[in-house]
Design a protein that fits this description.
2 domains; single chain; binds nicotinamide-adenine-dinucleotide; 23 strands; seven-stranded mixed β-sheet; Aldehyde Dehydrogenase, Chain A, domain 2
């Protein structure tokens, strides 16, 4: 780990460059509350340079055989893997998540993303069919050209690579705009691209804040599509800014996911997985199950077991291997989550466990730590149960029957994911079909197969990522009809 202030640069046209403005934003280490790096405060001039470089590289990259593109993506995966520990340490330091989580989840998943979409590049197929008159139709899926990939802070390299890899695999040149709050592993990705031999201009990484740098990227006429993951408010701003340009948009946004527990569940396993679903990554995963709906007859036993399990969770220095929760990502985000804890009290909730900031010693004494927190006795329709908190705060809500559980589960404006816990297979099928969400897990949580469509409905998303859906998003279909 380095101890001096780190100054990051943009990666444009195969080289590291200072921002045009010469100005930088501070990057805080969440575990200490101290500035440890500076990230370029890029503006439209940097975006223009990146788009120009990508435009120059575009034809050659689109014409590069898929097998060669795949080889370069695999090389990037291998190079990240060779530095897995270093990447994990940087991710943990930048985000506040336990280093063990970064080492076992974030960085392996980023590696898997590059390998998976390398395979997709080589195996992608398209349709062809004869019509009644004997005309042969076939569909070409051609790259869009230059595309923008914008990612949030919660799973920094994991989510950025989830966009960059399919965009590159399908023959596009990319302008990536990582979160300005957690930019370091994206900055390191430039080195990986250089070492792998990715041609200059194919991948450009421009750092900066949303309103200036992000806005310049989404509104640039040379950028044909935006793949965005972040808050619903930002997704709406991007949709508005791009509407008259008719850009392709993929928007992965907020969530307020329900975990629905029926009395016939496998009790021990359900308690353990509900705990994981609520508090993994300090509750800062869009898929976290923060509303835990429990069949009334099971509630007393379930509540006791969950409270006991939450009390056992260790909040600590992200560097320590036994820390299960690290720090929240920023002072501003910590303050937002604390406001929701206050609101939960105001709305009549009963605090079951947590709710306070643990006092850590030494280097972590000023870090953004918060104890995992559980409330019950809140109305299912109150603000705490309807709005995204995105922190280590969950609620327990009892229900009487399947219809009521479904009504509660579907009551928010979001629709990303849901998990059901029951041994009744017919009920699981019924409930899954009626859920207003893009993802339903039955007796599991965050089981991810990269081939499956990923995304949400309602205010959680527009479009799908993953597998064939991602390759289709980053290509334009063209039908060719030949009279035979
Ligand atoms: P955010 O919307 O504040 O920022 C996300 C990214 O958008 C950042 O890179 C930011 O700089 C950029 N941005 C901000 N304003 C912009 C603008 N006007 N134009 C272009 N870009 C702009 O989100 P966040 O706080 O970084 O992330 C947390 C949110 O992300 C939560 O709501 C969470 O649910 C959501 N999220 C969703 C998914 C999913 O797959 N659905 C996954 C992870 C996180």
């Amino acid at each position: 780990m380095r101890d001096s202030l780190l100054r990051l640069t943009n990666f444009i046209d195969g080289d590291y460059r200072a921002p045009a403005s010469g100005t930088y934003l501070p990057v805080y280490e969440p575990a200490t509350g101290k500035v440890y790096a500076e990230v370029p405060d890029s503006n439209a001039a940097d975006i223009d340079m990146a788009v120009a470089a990508a435009q120059t590289a575009r034809r050659s990259w689109a014409g590069t055989p898929p097998s060669q593109r795949a080889k370069l993506l695999r090389r990037m995966a291998d190079l990240i893997e060779a530095r897995l520990d270093a990447f994990a340490e940087e991710e943990s330091r930048d985000n506040g998540k336990p280093v063990t989580v970064a080492r076992t989840v974030d960085i392996p998943r980023a590696i898997a993303n590059f390998r998976f979409f390398a395979a997709m590049a080589e195996t992608q197929v398209s349709e062809s069919h004869h019509d009644e008159a004997g005309t042969l139709n076939y569909t070409l899926r051609q790259p869009l050209g230059v595309v923008g990939c914008i990612s949030p802070w919660n799973l920094p390299l994991y989510l950025l690579s989830w966009k960059i890899a399919p965009a590159l695999a399908s023959g596009n040149c990319v302008i990536a705009k990582p979160s300005e709050i957690t930019p370091v592993t994206a900055w390191l990705l430039g080195e990986i691209a250089q070492e792998a031999g990715l041609p200059a201009g194919v991948l450009n990484i421009v750092h900066g804040g949303g309103p200036r740098c992000g806005q310049a990227l989404v509104s640039h006429a040379g950028v044909k599509a935006i793949s965005f993951t972040g808050s619903t408010a930002t997704g709406a701003a991007i949709a508005a800014a791009t509407a008259t340009q008719f850009k392709k948009l993929s928007l992965e946004m907020g969530g307020k996911n329900a975990t629905v527990v029926f009395a016939d569940c496998d009790f021990e396993r359900t308690v353990g997985e509900c705990l994981r679903a609520a508090f993994s990554n300090q509750g800062q995963i869009c898929l976290c199950g923060s509303r835990i709906l429990v069949e009334r007859s099971l509630m007393p036993r379930f509540r006791d077991a969950l409270v006991a399990a939450v009390s056992q969770l260790k909040v600590g220095d992200p560097r320590e291997p036994d820390s299960q929760l690290g720090a929240l990502v920023s002072a501003a985000h910590l303050a937002k989550v604390q406001r929701y804890i206050n609101l939960a009290h105001e709305e009549g909730g009963r605090l079951l466990v947590g709710g306070t900031r643990p006092s850590l010693e030494g280097r972590c004494q000023d870090g953004y730590f918060l104890a995992p927190t559980l409330f019950d006795q809140l109305d299912p329709y109150c603000r705490v149960n309807q709005e995204e908190i995105f922190g280590p705060v969950a609620t327990l809500v009892p229900f009487d029957d399947e219809d009521q559980a479904l009504a509660y589960a579907n009551s928010t404006s979001y629709g990303l994911a849901c998990s059901l816990w029951t041994r009744d297979l017919a009920r699981a099928h019924r409930f899954a079909a009626a859920m207003e969400s893009g993802i339903v897990w039955v007796n599991c949580w965050m089981a991810r197969d990269l081939r499956t469509p990923f995304g949400g409905v309602k205010q959680s998303g527009l479009g799908r990522e993953g597998g064939v859906d991602a390759m289709r998003f980053f290509t334009e279909a063209k039908n060719v009809a030949i009279a035979c």
